[in-house]
TrEMBL record:
<dbReference type="InterPro" id="IPR015815">
    <property type="entry name" value="HIBADH-related"/>
</dbReference>
<dbReference type="GO" id="GO:0016491">
    <property type="term" value="F:oxidoreductase activity"/>
</dbReference>
<dbReference type="InterPro" id="IPR006115">
    <property type="entry name" value="6PGDH_NADP-bd"/>
</dbReference>
<feature type="active site">
    <location>
        <position position="170"/>
    </location>
</feature>
<feature type="domain" description="3-hydroxyisobutyrate dehydrogenase-like NAD-binding">
    <location>
        <begin position="164"/>
        <end position="284"/>
    </location>
</feature>
<comment type="similarity">
    <text>Belongs to the HIBADH-related family.</text>
</comment>
<keyword id="KW-0520">NAD</keyword>
<keyword id="KW-0560">Oxidoreductase</keyword>
<dbReference type="Pfam" id="PF03446">
    <property type="entry name" value="NAD_binding_2"/>
</dbReference>
<dbReference type="GO" id="GO:0050661">
    <property type="term" value="F:NADP binding"/>
</dbReference>
<dbReference type="GO" id="GO:0016054">
    <property type="term" value="P:organic acid catabolic process"/>
</dbReference>
<dbReference type="Pfam" id="PF14833">
    <property type="entry name" value="NAD_binding_11"/>
</dbReference>
<dbReference type="InterPro" id="IPR002204">
    <property type="entry name" value="3-OH-isobutyrate_DH-rel_CS"/>
</dbReference>
<feature type="domain" description="6-phosphogluconate dehydrogenase NADP-binding">
    <location>
        <begin position="2"/>
        <end position="161"/>
    </location>
</feature>
<dbReference type="InterPro" id="IPR029154">
    <property type="entry name" value="HIBADH-like_NADP-bd"/>
</dbReference>
<dbReference type="InterPro" id="IPR013328">
    <property type="entry name" value="6PGD_dom2"/>
</dbReference>
<protein>
    <submittedName>
        <fullName>2-hydroxy-3-oxopropionate reductase</fullName>
    </submittedName>
</protein>
Length: 293
């Protein structure tokens, strides 16, 4: 397929590279030209704007930070809508609020563009290894049309429902992963403060009902003190802000999410925002007087 890709950061760059590896023709644009260079060297087409991407390819993808960025690259000056022809599909794989995804879909539809919200889970490793989990909302026929692109970037792609439904699924994912990271960090810090080998505690827990992928993967990274970002803490903070904003809108109690959101606020406020979200352990250690940077 012919596809344009916008947003070549920690996640977007390997995702676009995997599209090239799968044989798709990829055109790229980024606000930072340096971000484009690895893709250009891999054979991607060089575009001067998001509008030019849309003129060259019938499908465009955005992987950017938040809803204002998505709006700018799709509906702003020289955005996707300015270059799109009838039948164009735009896939936003960023994590934004469900209501924002619905609004963008409606406004893009008025410009003749079919929008899919298709956020992902799996972090940088999943993006590199093309093992992302993709959750999509929007027109099901458009979803099926672009399935080969999803298959090149991820291990699974599920159509959840109407516009915004993919973002609802991603919010659910971020609740579970955020609370899970906090729980594992609390448990390992508790073990350490109790004078017990945290590695052996983790080994024992992996054999019981406490087993989770977070305990297995992130728990080991916490023990190794590998806080290199695969998913930065400020990003998880942003995602849980979306969760809590939606909870307020719905009048919904999410007590565990609220407490975890405050922990991510504290991480960012104490200078840990650029670390991986598992640096929650470092925050807890500081709070308990057992910091081991």
């Amino acid at each position: 397929m012919d596809v344009g890709f916008i947003g070549l950061g920690l996640m977007g760059r390997p995702m676009a590279l995997n599209l090239i590896k799968a044989g798709h023709t990829v055109h790229v644009w980024s606000r930072r030209r340096a971000s484009m260079q690895p893709l250009l060297e891999a054979g991607a087409g060089d575009c001067a704007s998001a509008a030019e991407l849309a003129r060259r390819a019938p499908v465009t993808i955005s992987m950017v930070a938040d809803a204002p960025d998505v709006e700018q690259v799709t509906l702003g000056a020289d955005g996707v809508a300015d270059g799109a022809s009838a039948g164009h599909i735009h896939i936003d794989m960023s994590t934004i609020a469900p209501a924002a995804a619905q609004s963008l879909a409606e406004r893009l539809a008025a410009r003749g563009v079919t929008a899919l919200d298709a956020p992902v889970s799996g972090g940088e490793i999943g993006a590199i290894n093309a093992t992302l989990t993709i959750m999509a909302g929007g027109d099901v026929a458009a979803f099926e049309r672009v399935r080969p692109l999803f298959e090149a970037m991820g291990r699974s792609a599920t159509h959840i429902g109407a516009a915004g439904a993919g973002q609802v699924a991603k919010a659910c994912n971020q609740i579970i992963t955020g609370v899970g990271v906090a729980a594992v960090a609390e448990a390992l810090n508790f073990a350490h403060k109790s004078g017990v080998d945290a590695a052996k505690v983790r080994e024992a827990l992996l054999g019981g009902f406490a087993y989770s992928r977070i305990l297995e993967n992130h728990g080991q990274r916490m023990l190794d003190r590998n806080f290199k970002p695969g998913f930065k803490a400020w990003m998880h903070q942003k995602d849980l802000r979306i969760v809590m904003d939606e909870a307020h809108r719905l009048g919904l109690a999410l007590p565990s999410s609220a407490a975890t959101a405050q922990m991510f606020n504290a991480m960012v406020g104490s200078g840990l925002g650029e670390d991986d979200s598992i640096a929650m352990l470092k925050l807890l250690e500081r709070m308990s007087g057992s910091a081991d940077e």
